[in-house]
Request: fold
Amino acid sequence: MFELILINGCGGAGKDTTGRLLLPKLANAALIDIKALSITNPWKYSDFQIGLKNAAVLINSYAEAGYSQIILTGGVNSQDRLDYLINLLPKSIRIPLVSR
Reply:
């Protein structure tokens, strides 16, 4: 079992900074910045599924590698996106949400 810590907020709120500051405080954790997982040309706002699919692959890989806490910054700013991501992850996951 692992915990996925979601950090969300509007642009410039400090999501990435919060994730980077939180990471060293956790004993066995990984950090995923969703922006780095959805860089395309042309970029389309409606292509959020690409970033979430890529994040799910990394989340599952980190969990399989034994990381007990995985921080995901950005990308899950609506119930639809949260539901989409949850459907790509194991059912044993615990998800606290931090909003910036």
